[in-house]
Amino acid sequence: MTGSRTLTGIGSTPRTGVGTARWYRSAADLALPERPDPATVDPETERDRFASAREAAREGIRRARDRAAERVGEEEAAVFDAHEAFLDDPGLVDDVEGDIDDGTPAEHAVDDRFADAIERFEGMDGRMAERADDLRDVRDRLLRALLDAPAAADLSALPAGTVLLADRLTPSDTAELDPSAVAGIATVAGGRTSHAAIIARSLSIPAVVGVGEPLREVPDGAEVLVDGEAGEVVVDPDEDRRSAALAGEEASVVPEPVSTADGRPIEVAANVGSAAELPPAIDRGADGVGLFRTEFLFLDRESPPDETEQYEAVVAALEAFPKDRIVVRTLDVGGDKRVPYLDLPEEPNPFLGRRGIRLSLEEHADLFETQLRALLRAAARGGGGDGDRDRGGDGDAGDLAVMFPMVSRVEEVDAALDRVESVAADLADEGAAYAVPELGAMIETPAASYMADALAGRLDFLSVGTNDLAGYVMAADRENDGVADYHDPLHPAVLRAIDRTTRGAEETDAWVGMCGEMAGDPALTELLVGLGLDELSMSAVTVPAVKTRVREVDAAAARDLAEAALACETRAEVRDVLSLDG
Amino acid sequence: MEQIVEVVPAAGLHARPASKLVKTANRFDADLSIGRPDDGDDGLVRADSMLAVTGLNVAHGESVRVVAEGPEATAALDAIEALLTNPVENGDGEAGNGEDGNTEAGNGEDGK
After folding, report:
1. What are the residue boundaries of the PEP-utilising enzyme mobile domain, all occurrences included (chain A) (predicted)?
2. The one catalytic residue among A364, A487, A491, A515
3. Among A3-12, A155-164, A499-508, whose mean pLDDT is lowest?
4. Mean pLDDT lowest among A337-346, A376-385, B14-23
């Protein structure tokens, strides 16, 4: 085949997809009617039209918010609060109504005034340019309502194998995408942190953003390959490129469990923060879930979820991975994670304050009990907590494991185990079906790493949360750019804390996993195998690369590498040992 | 009355913290305005306007001057101080891999 054309942009999800191009045109393309003579405009009518359009837009924003919360996560959903605030902006509303009173029809007044605001924001830096996207989104909702135009395209009902091409995608657009139908996304504008890029990554959709004007020449219906690794969009790809890309994609996904070259099994699981992240985790071949965050069930609502709601969410995850294990983390709020109705204390130093298991054992003992009840009941659906993986899978659901966040004292684990026991006794009294799942602790504090032997002796597993562990070991906040250099798990001190954890568990039957960012970096897989980790849990998108890497690693050689890294005194030496640049 | 407050949420006065500020400003019977301390009265904008507040482009760690007038000025100032000095609810400490949307979403919207 000839005529293959390659366009370059910014690769944002490192996957490749091929499909049929379909342009998504936003309401920005809506044609406004010609401006009438101001004398013929009735301001009263126009004000009413504007008011009803605002109500329609408000309803749409709230629906989009709910949908995003459900499908993508609370962080992405929060952007719609900003949309509602823009919709209610008193300055903007006054300006539009002023124009209306001067004889401008509502749609022109909206278009003009939003154009001014969008232009102001566009001229500013990256984050402000995102606000321009927000304003466009709100304007489009108003215009669609005023012009009685249908929603621009039903993004939730695209035919399978669509490569979505767009100028840019707004938060509302991206929240609606059906990830199973979208083979890829390419946009004219936008960077790696644009909404389109963020959502595409969290749903593992191949994406290239910021391709620029040449993308516009790609016609609807063309066959397009989106290579998010190379940052390329190939129009009419030749057969070689096509099959190479698809073969690479298929080969890269390793659905079965993997072992090192010399036969040591390493479980490669996915971190999951909402129900919408389960399907991509399955598609990427994850061996279950190594960190199932439960916070999404609690955020942005007026009261905590009840037992049934929590039970159902966990059972859904277990059913998604009938042959694997799902490690659910009990509620981890506090620190920087706030939940309004939980009435958390004001603390001068929340990262060193009441968070995680500390809250669950005291202030939130009731929530903890409800959560444990839901979890023990859900565990009855899976293989139960005999500590063995039930890979053969006799039931319809995977095995549950439960871990406690922010552990720093052995007493906390003893208390948590007591709670589990008493919840189990209650459920037995009630005649409810339940099972005690595998129980574990997150190793996020230096204290927990020092006490790993005692913790492992009491529990079925430990899971190293490297982001917090690096923060606490190095005394560095990862949000603080001023200490970004300190917050790195490759500092020898952090490696030694991990090593202490795995060695602490060595004498026990407990397995040790890792669920921080470090686990998802294939360049570190050999080191982590050498440090004695049994399980690595990461963002679904990196599962194939890590699985592939595990198979190449020799566990004995990995141990030597880890010993060499542990002997280092500086991060530079560690990087040198690992042959990493810089 | 007025007050100088440091903006603690890592997102600065954007996205969620900004929409919360606007909501709070609307809740009280008071006229609230906000600006950079060095910009004087000319730099003050209305705190109940999302456009105006985000237009200030205030980053995490910067201080803002909040001016309140009206019957509920004191309560409004207190509420705004509480909001600006509170790290906003956030994503997750273990937000998956760096390539992951969670982390980036945090950067863009929520101050990760």
Report:
1. 159-231
2. A515
3. A155-164
4. A337-346
Q: Please give the pLDDT value at position B64.
A: 93
User: How close, in Å, is residue B83 to chain A by CA atoms?
Assistant: 11
Inter-chain contact B92–A295, Cβ cutoff 8 Å? yes
**A338–B106 C-beta distance less than 8 A:** no
Q: Tell whether B41 is within 8 A of chain A (Cβ).
A: no
Give the contacts of B5 (CB within 8 A, at least 6 positions apart): B63, B64, B66, B80, B81, B84, B85
Average pLDDT over residues B30-35: 93
Domain positions in chain B are: 2-110
The answer to whether residue A195 is catalytic is: yes
A253-577 has the same fold as A5-25+161-251: no
Could you report the per-residue pLDDT of B57-70, keeping only the tens digit for each? 888 889 999 999 99
A467 marked as part of a ligand binding site: yes
Helix (H) or strand (E) holding A413: helix A410-430
Task: Name the pTM for this structure.
Answer: 0.60
Per-residue pLDDT averaged across A74-103, rounded? 89
Interface predicted TM-score of the whole assembly (ipTM), two decimals: 0.75
Q: Are strands A207-209 and A182-187 parallel, antiparallel or unpaired?
A: parallel
Assigned CATH for A5-25+161-251: 3.50.30.10
Looking at the domain that runs over A253-577, which CATH code has it been given? Answer: 3.20.20.60
Closest CA of chain B from A133, distance in Å: 12
A211: CB partners within 8 A, 6+ apart: A7, A8, A9, A186, A187, A188, A233
Residues of chain B contacting residue A349, judged by C-beta atoms under 8 Å apart? none
Q: Which residue has the tokens 């249908």?
A: A150
- Annotated domain spans of chain A: 5-25+161-251, 27-146, 253-577
Superfamily grouping for domain A27-146: PtsI, HPr-binding domain (1.10.274.10)
